[in-house]
Amino acid sequence: MSWNVIHLDAIAPMPWKNGGGTTRELIAWPRGDNWLWRMSVAEVTQSGPFSRFEGVERWFAVLLGAGVTLKTAGKKQTLTPASQPFCFDGALATDCDLMEGVTQDFNLMTRKDRIEATMTRVESPLSWAINNSSTVAVFAMDTASSIQFNARADDIQPGTLIWRTTVKGDQLRLDTKSALMITMLHKDTA
Fold it and tell me: What is the value of pTM for the model shown?
Protein backbone atom coordinates (compact mmCIF):
# COMPACT_ATOMS: atom_id res chain seq x y z
CA MET A 1 0.00 0.00 0.00
CA SER A 2 1.29 3.46 -0.87
CA TRP A 3 0.48 6.89 0.54
CA ASN A 4 -2.94 8.42 -0.15
CA VAL A 5 -2.36 11.95 -1.48
CA ILE A 6 -4.59 15.01 -1.71
CA HIS A 7 -3.61 18.53 -2.76
CA LEU A 8 -5.31 21.46 -1.06
CA ASP A 9 -5.67 23.42 -4.31
CA ALA A 10 -7.68 20.53 -5.83
CA ILE A 11 -10.49 21.02 -3.26
CA ALA A 12 -13.12 23.73 -3.76
CA PRO A 13 -13.82 25.88 -0.67
CA MET A 14 -17.28 25.49 0.85
CA PRO A 15 -18.78 28.54 2.61
CA TRP A 16 -19.81 28.29 6.25
CA LYS A 17 -23.50 28.67 7.08
CA ASN A 18 -22.70 31.63 9.38
CA GLY A 19 -20.67 33.42 6.67
CA GLY A 20 -17.53 33.53 8.81
CA GLY A 21 -15.28 31.59 6.47
CA THR A 22 -14.81 28.62 4.17
CA THR A 23 -13.64 25.02 4.58
CA ARG A 24 -11.82 22.67 2.23
CA GLU A 25 -12.48 19.13 3.42
CA LEU A 26 -9.37 17.11 2.60
CA ILE A 27 -10.66 13.75 3.83
CA ALA A 28 -13.38 12.26 5.98
CA TRP A 29 -12.79 8.57 6.70
CA PRO A 30 -14.76 6.53 6.11
CA ARG A 31 -16.73 8.65 3.64
CA GLY A 32 -20.18 9.87 4.63
CA ASP A 33 -21.74 11.15 7.84
CA ASN A 34 -20.37 8.35 10.03
CA TRP A 35 -16.70 9.32 9.67
CA LEU A 36 -14.21 8.41 12.41
CA TRP A 37 -11.76 11.16 11.50
CA ARG A 38 -11.84 14.23 9.32
CA MET A 39 -9.16 16.68 8.17
CA SER A 40 -9.77 20.06 6.60
CA VAL A 41 -8.26 23.47 5.99
CA ALA A 42 -10.40 26.50 6.84
CA GLU A 43 -10.11 30.16 6.05
CA VAL A 44 -11.55 32.17 8.92
CA THR A 45 -12.62 35.62 7.70
CA GLN A 46 -14.40 36.93 10.79
CA SER A 47 -14.53 36.28 14.51
CA GLY A 48 -17.38 34.16 15.84
CA PRO A 49 -18.48 30.83 17.32
CA PHE A 50 -17.37 27.41 16.08
CA SER A 51 -19.94 24.74 15.30
CA ARG A 52 -20.36 22.18 18.07
CA PHE A 53 -19.62 18.49 17.47
CA GLU A 54 -20.81 16.12 20.20
CA GLY A 55 -18.43 13.23 20.86
CA VAL A 56 -15.66 14.78 18.78
CA GLU A 57 -12.13 15.77 19.80
CA ARG A 58 -10.81 18.71 17.77
CA TRP A 59 -7.24 19.69 16.92
CA PHE A 60 -6.59 23.17 15.54
CA ALA A 61 -3.39 24.67 14.07
CA VAL A 62 -2.88 28.11 12.49
CA LEU A 63 -1.17 27.87 9.09
CA LEU A 64 -1.24 31.49 7.86
CA GLY A 65 -2.19 34.89 9.28
CA ALA A 66 -1.42 36.56 12.60
CA GLY A 67 -3.41 34.05 14.63
CA VAL A 68 -6.50 33.59 16.75
CA THR A 69 -7.63 33.43 20.35
CA LEU A 70 -9.95 30.51 21.07
CA LYS A 71 -12.23 30.74 24.09
CA THR A 72 -13.47 27.36 25.31
CA ALA A 73 -14.48 26.00 28.72
CA GLY A 74 -13.87 29.43 30.29
CA LYS A 75 -10.23 29.51 29.14
CA LYS A 76 -8.42 31.44 26.40
CA GLN A 77 -5.81 29.92 24.10
CA THR A 78 -3.85 32.17 21.73
CA LEU A 79 -2.56 30.39 18.62
CA THR A 80 -0.18 31.67 15.94
CA PRO A 81 1.62 29.99 13.02
CA ALA A 82 4.45 29.21 15.49
CA SER A 83 2.18 27.52 18.07
CA GLN A 84 1.79 23.80 18.54
CA PRO A 85 -1.70 22.54 17.60
CA PHE A 86 -4.40 22.94 20.25
CA CYS A 87 -6.75 20.10 21.24
CA PHE A 88 -10.23 20.73 22.68
CA ASP A 89 -13.62 19.08 23.16
CA GLY A 90 -15.79 19.72 20.11
CA ALA A 91 -18.97 19.60 22.21
CA LEU A 92 -18.02 22.73 24.16
CA ALA A 93 -19.04 26.24 23.12
CA THR A 94 -15.93 27.68 21.45
CA ASP A 95 -15.48 31.23 20.17
CA CYS A 96 -12.72 32.30 17.79
CA ASP A 97 -11.35 35.87 17.82
CA LEU A 98 -9.09 36.82 14.92
CA MET A 99 -5.97 38.72 16.02
CA GLU A 100 -5.27 40.75 12.86
CA GLY A 101 -7.45 39.59 10.01
CA VAL A 102 -7.99 36.39 8.05
CA THR A 103 -6.28 33.15 9.08
CA GLN A 104 -5.85 29.80 7.40
CA ASP A 105 -6.13 26.87 9.81
CA PHE A 106 -5.74 23.09 9.73
CA ASN A 107 -8.41 21.09 11.55
CA LEU A 108 -8.46 17.47 12.67
CA MET A 109 -11.65 16.04 14.15
CA THR A 110 -11.88 12.50 15.58
CA ARG A 111 -14.62 10.47 17.28
CA LYS A 112 -13.09 10.44 20.74
CA ASP A 113 -14.69 7.14 21.77
CA ARG A 114 -13.06 5.38 18.77
CA ILE A 115 -9.83 7.26 17.91
CA GLU A 116 -6.87 8.44 20.00
CA ALA A 117 -5.07 11.17 18.03
CA THR A 118 -2.06 13.45 18.27
CA MET A 119 -1.05 16.34 16.01
CA THR A 120 2.36 18.01 16.18
CA ARG A 121 4.02 20.85 14.27
CA VAL A 122 7.35 19.58 12.89
CA GLU A 123 10.10 21.99 11.79
CA SER A 124 13.15 19.70 11.61
CA PRO A 125 13.89 16.09 10.65
CA LEU A 126 12.05 13.52 12.75
CA SER A 127 12.40 9.73 12.84
CA TRP A 128 10.17 7.28 14.67
CA ALA A 129 9.13 3.64 14.85
CA ILE A 130 5.49 2.57 14.89
CA ASN A 131 4.52 0.82 18.15
CA ASN A 132 0.90 -0.05 17.24
CA SER A 133 -1.12 -0.32 14.05
CA SER A 134 -2.30 3.21 13.32
CA THR A 135 -3.02 5.80 10.66
CA VAL A 136 -0.23 8.30 10.04
CA ALA A 137 -0.77 11.55 8.13
CA VAL A 138 1.48 14.48 7.20
CA PHE A 139 0.38 17.89 5.91
CA ALA A 140 3.24 19.81 4.24
CA MET A 141 2.52 23.45 4.97
CA ASP A 142 4.45 26.10 3.02
CA THR A 143 7.60 24.16 2.04
CA ALA A 144 8.21 20.84 0.35
CA SER A 145 8.96 17.88 2.62
CA SER A 146 10.02 14.29 2.13
CA ILE A 147 9.08 11.16 3.98
CA GLN A 148 10.76 7.80 4.11
CA PHE A 149 8.52 4.85 4.94
CA ASN A 150 10.64 1.78 5.62
CA ALA A 151 12.88 1.73 2.49
CA ARG A 152 10.78 3.96 0.20
CA ALA A 153 11.14 7.77 0.04
CA ASP A 154 8.48 10.15 -1.30
CA ASP A 155 8.33 13.92 -1.75
CA ILE A 156 5.42 15.96 -0.38
CA GLN A 157 4.62 19.24 -2.12
CA PRO A 158 3.49 22.29 -0.10
CA GLY A 159 -0.25 22.27 0.62
CA THR A 160 -0.44 18.48 0.35
CA LEU A 161 -1.84 15.90 2.76
CA ILE A 162 -0.62 12.30 2.71
CA TRP A 163 -1.85 9.42 4.91
CA ARG A 164 -1.58 5.65 5.23
CA THR A 165 -2.13 2.74 7.58
CA THR A 166 0.97 1.51 9.42
CA VAL A 167 1.76 -1.58 11.47
CA LYS A 168 4.00 -2.22 14.44
CA GLY A 169 7.66 -2.09 13.43
CA ASP A 170 7.28 0.28 10.46
CA GLN A 171 10.01 2.95 10.37
CA LEU A 172 9.38 6.56 9.29
CA ARG A 173 11.56 9.60 8.75
CA LEU A 174 10.12 13.03 7.94
CA ASP A 175 12.48 15.68 6.54
CA THR A 176 10.72 19.02 6.74
CA LYS A 177 10.91 22.65 7.80
CA SER A 178 7.14 23.11 7.99
CA ALA A 179 4.67 20.23 8.41
CA LEU A 180 1.98 18.82 10.67
CA MET A 181 2.36 15.19 11.72
CA ILE A 182 -0.77 13.31 12.79
CA THR A 183 -1.12 9.85 14.30
CA MET A 184 -4.45 8.15 14.93
CA LEU A 185 -4.80 4.93 16.89
CA HIS A 186 -8.10 3.06 16.54
CA LYS A 187 -9.07 2.20 20.12
CA ASP A 188 -10.75 -1.08 19.13
CA THR A 189 -7.45 -2.39 17.67
CA ALA A 190 -5.09 -1.13 20.41
Answer: 0.94
